[in-house]
Amino acid sequence: MLDESKPLFLAVADQIEDGVLDGTYPEETPVPSTNELAAFLRINPATAGKGLNRLADAGVLVKRRGVGMFVAPGATDLVRRRRREDFLQGYIAPLLREADHLGLTTQELITMLTEEDAR
């Protein structure tokens, strides 16, 4: 289902990107059409189209005139690189700032992460 904490067109784009990353939509294969997405997700076709167009503008999808949208060659790496950078900026950098404020060393932070991962 869609993440309702963000605009629907962004949630549509994220869902397609998730499918690219997990292999649901391999490179050079078609993604659902605007109308298919709209019907399945029960959203306005313009909203679905906006999400798909956002991915096309980012180079994740390519439009094939008269045929539809396809996953671009190299899209998996493109999405993975962008999401890793987003993860770094959204999670790791704030984590490191807070750890610094708390006087945690890098090793203490690694130990905390390792222990949490083991749970």
Automatic annotation (TrEMBL):
GO terms for molecular function: DNA binding; DNA-binding transcription factor activity. Residues 6-74 form the HTH gntR-type domain. The keyword DNA-binding applies. Keywords: DNA-binding, Transcription, Transcription regulation. It comes from the Bacteria. CDD domains: WHTH_GntR (cd07377). PANTHER family: GNTR-FAMILY TRANSCRIPTIONAL REGULATOR (PTHR38445:SF10), HTH-TYPE TRANSCRIPTIONAL REPRESSOR YTRA (PTHR38445). This is GntR family transcriptional regulator. It comes from Brachybacterium saurashtrense.
